[in-house]
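ok so I'm stuck.
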Amino acid sequence: MRQRITFIQRPEDSVDPEKLKVTNNVISTKNIRAAREDRITFGFDELPQELYRVLKASHELHIRWVSRNPYDTIAPLVSRLSPGLHVFYTPQRNSNNSSLLCPVLKKVFGDLDCLSPEQSFTNLPIERFSLSAAAQYYDPLSSLKDFVTYITHKLCKSADSRCLSRVSLLSSASTIDIDFDTISHALTLTAFWPIRDWDLDFKSTSGDRLEVGILSVEQAVELEELSLGGFLTVVGEDSKPSPTLFSFPARHHPTEQSFSSSFISPTGLHPTLQLEISSSESPKKGKSCSMHVHLTLPRAVFADKYQLSDPLFLASKNLSSIRYITNPVDLEAPAYTTSLWGSSLLLELAPPKSASKDSQWTAQIPLHLRYLLPNSDQNGQQELEVPYPVAFWACTADEGSKFPINPFDRVNLGYEALFGRRTLFYHINPEAKERGLINKLSVPVLDLGGAKYVENGTAVAVGLGFAWVLWCLFGVWRREGYGSGKATVEIGRGAGEESKKKK
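replied:
not stuck anymore, here's the structure
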């Protein structure tokens, strides 16, 4: 097992290295204010058997969980995803064990609506975007309670207080990443916590490597780079912290811009998601940049790609074009007849040219709802949750720029593979209004409690209609008499035969 614990500080919060106590196998200090990233790498022999079987049948597996609670990022840990559980998966060729994935996901994360990769996952266009996994799954998982319980039982001994404390800390993390690919043959668990106060007390164990870094953001020489300086310590090997300063190219960068999202009332069955964005100023002047928004839509909500292909309609909503949408998306099926998790959508926005670059502006995204199952005792309404989208500027890097994997790179986010390799992402910070990074809307459904009135009313309407038809027939009979139509026919035939005789 290899562990890397990194604390990222603002320059004004930088720690004095003299306060770091380093002994043979322990590093400790008090009251460090920083963001934190833990990265633990497991070998196959350290994993539970059910995980080992799934990974042996996988070419790559990337799991991302994001909290719905608002949190602040700090460079270089600035990339974002919509809240919930994201799974990106590519099976081994000629492997018949992909059916093991969903049962293991349920065992690790709780009761997910996952049947199998074939039934619940959507396909990604890997023939066009080679950096993408083959399939994607999403679930609006709000808590890591089941995940923490699973890790506690599988990795910690009951008497190991340090392990139990580290694992319980995962329940307060803002993001969790789990990565595996056949090249590394190792499983990596990465967790991130935003800036807060920490007390350090880490101990290395025999056979494991523990590296602790306390770094702060420095001024980078190049605009496309990030620079960090501070101290690194390999616990059990170093007798004191080693100073370090390094720079690296980074694809993900922060901005000071922000946005919020909400549904315009009333929503009905065709809600409109409105984005309020603080500025339209490009983060890189003189460079080719465009603003995008990436939506993760659960199965009850979908976008109509044909509606979003009309240039005049898009311009009226401050949208430019649709860049990607999950294919296919059934526009008619009710939510309870579909097994796919939902769909994802990438849109390019069109900031209004007439507005000041520092003034707030809005964009509107038309969506549609599927019919949901009837319910009772809820007044014919069903609450639905839609995660916040991800908003960012996509800018083209200078010719010849290269982006090797840096120590804090975060890939397989579902949208970065939809762009070229020389694309830089400048993230716009989401601002939650009331309910965290989740938008809620009330969907009209059939109320089973009032269904009997509908049934009785329908029966009465049909009965009255039938009675009206009978009354009309009775009126005709009363005026014309029974068989009057037949007599007319007979009279007509007789007149015709008499005419023939005269001729």
